[in-house]
Amino acid sequence: MATCLVTGGAGFLGSHLCDELLRRGHRVICVDNLETGSLKNIHHIRVPEFVHLNVDIIEPFFVDEPVDFVYHLASPASPIDYLRLPLHTLKVGSHGTHHALGLAKKHRARFLIASTSEVYGDPQEHPQKETYWGHVNPIGPRGVYDEAKRYAEALTMAYHRQQGVDTAIMRIFNTYGPRMRPHDGRAIPTFLRQALQDQPITVFGDGSQTRSFCYVSDLIRGMIALAESGHHHPVNIGNPNEFTLLELAETVIEVTGSRSQIVHEPLPTDDPQVRQPDIALAGQLLGWAPEVELREGLRRTIEDAGVEMLTGTSS
């Protein structure tokens, strides 16, 4: 049994990671101050192998028992959160990553940082490979998140090169599934909430901008595989099947049987026009590829979170 520490463990991805690690027989220490996470995401976990620490990782924190893996997921990740908490987002990327890496160094643990496809910005390369350096606006409204993650990647590699910490960097592309908050500002929960209430579905711009959507169980499987590998450089984990946002809205209407109409709103500042991962490296290193296609993933999300999506209440 390995002991796994998960920062942001009460969030969307973090809670699913905690579930899967426990299912695989590991002990899990969930670290989350509930700034954007929720106790509702972990209230079902009632086993002695799980503990929740209400800690703000911006401040130094310590764990008195041995730790084998540190999964560093803590960060505001949706636009509604990092636009509301710009300084906090930057501090989590800097101070929080520094403290998590320091803990991994102390315990000689394998460290994985959950980075993001946002490090590519509005990419000039399509699809995006790990060798692409990105096209990011550092002073735009999204810069607090993009640059926090880019800095966190640099800090992770510095700890690896200078301090010898065993590190991994995972660049996460759009992921969806149960426990996403209906009002978190991202496309799939927003579209599902609107469709299930027969409200107009709001598409930014003309809807021609593309995204690639990975179901959460596929993402978590890739995350654990990367953590258990010996690889240190960035690896894309996401679904390479690309959809325009207009196609996504139409698919949501189809799957839900909604009477919603599609309406268009102005495009947000620095909204990426394309987003598609090249996952060849993940396939070669980890033997990983996504398995759940979009319609099936949407059905599973509705089945598990239908009441909250239907009422628009937050999880």
UniProtKB/TrEMBL annotation:
SUPFAM superfamilies: NAD(P)-binding Rossmann-fold domains. One of its GO terms (biological process) is D-xylose metabolic process. Keywords: Decarboxylase, Glycoprotein, Golgi apparatus, Lyase, Membrane, NAD, Signal-anchor, Transmembrane, Transmembrane helix. The keyword Zinc-finger does not apply. Residues 5-238 form the NAD-dependent epimerase/dehydratase domain. It is an enzyme of class 4 (lyase). It is a single-pass type II membrane protein. One of its GO terms (molecular function) is NAD+ binding. The keyword Ribosomal protein does not apply. Its EC number is 4.2.1.46. Its main location: Golgi. Gene3D superfamilies: NAD(P)-binding Rossmann-like Domain. This is dTDP-glucose 4,6-dehydratase. It comes from Conexibacter arvalis. The lineage of its organism: Bacteria, Bacillati, Actinomycetota, Thermoleophilia, Solirubrobacterales.
